[in-house]
Amino acid sequence: MLKIENVTRRFGKFTAIDDVSLEIPQGQMVGIIGRSGAGKSTLLRMINRLVDPSEGAILFEGTNVAQLKGAALRNWQRDCAMIFQQFNLVPRLDVLTNVLLGRLNHRSTIKSLLGMFSREERAMAIAALERLDIAKTALQRAGTLSGGQQQRVAIARALMQNPKVVLADEPIASLDPRNAQVVMESLRDINEREGLTVITNLHTLDTARHFCQRIIGMQGGKVVFDGGPDDLTELAARRIYGADGMKDAFSEAITSTSISRGTPKPISELEAVLAAR
Ligand SMILES: Nc1ncnc2c1ncn2[C@@H]1O[C@H](COP(=O)(O)OP(=O)(O)O)[C@@H](O)[C@H]1O
Ligand SMILES: [Mg+2]
């Protein structure tokens, strides 16, 4: 169980997340929807501690992960893998190595950087790639793959962390509809087969309704809707998107503007590790 208790996040005087409380049972597939600026990314990033709450608690299996430091924090970040809109692969490295980087938090960095992955880890990486139907790309440079394939590599890398929770921040916003479908099916598949909690920000209501058991609607940093796909009536959608935002809610052509809004761009795990040394 993941419990978000009265969480608020301020940036200066601006309140991006305003006293949000949620309980997410293990194994749920949750879609978070809302207009750009509603606070979706901030909420997800606080769960994984890329951003710290200003107030409130985030409890996972009883531990307040908002207060973790050092090794305990790294363990939590391993337990909740994050998938980004822009994939965050290392484009010059081959697919297999990118997937193996998901093991970084399980092992010594020096070994990882020297490419000393064990036979077991390599087998695990191949299995993850097979699972996502992209094993044939294993030796290609990640940057040469299509967006949909790259996002599947990112999911395979996330699986290498053996996570309990998978967080995905608009994983399909940069993809064409066909690839978007494949990626959403992959997320649903790991949710169903592995019993992993999947929490994904989605720009459009249709995708959330189609793939998620539970939909959380945000507006102005608050949760304004929380229910199943069938509860998401037009009235509820208006509350989430506002009357003038309804056309965005249904348009697959609209992509997230999070990258251009000046929010910090996530860096690749490899860069993060190098920076931390
Ligand atoms: N690092 C930051 N500094 C200042 N303001 C931020 C920062 N991150 C997010 N915000 C602001 O918080 C609000 C919510 O942002 P965000 O969580 O990215 O929304 P969404 O993902 O729903 O588009 C926006 O108004 C955004 O500009
Ligand atoms: Mg966002």
Description:
The protein is an alpha/beta fold and 277 residues long. The chain has a single domain (2-88, 165-271), classed as P-loop containing nucleotide triphosphate hydrolases (Rossmann fold). The protein has 11 helices and 10 strands. The protein has helices at 40-47, 70-79, 95-100, 109-113, 119-131, 147-159, 177-194, 205-211, 234-241, 246-250, 269-276; strands spanning 2-11, 14-24, 29-33, 55-60, 63-64, 80-83, 165-169, 197-201, 214-219, 222-227. The strands form 2 sheets. Strands 6-7-8-3-9-10 form a 6-stranded mixed β-sheet, sandwiched between helices. A hairpin with a 2-residue loop joins strand 9 and strand 10 (222-227). Residues 252-277 have low confidence and may be disordered. The structure holds adenosine-5'-diphosphate and magnesium ion (MG). Residues 40-41, 170, 201, 256, 258 line the site of magnesium ion. This is Phosphonate ABC transporter ATP-binding protein.
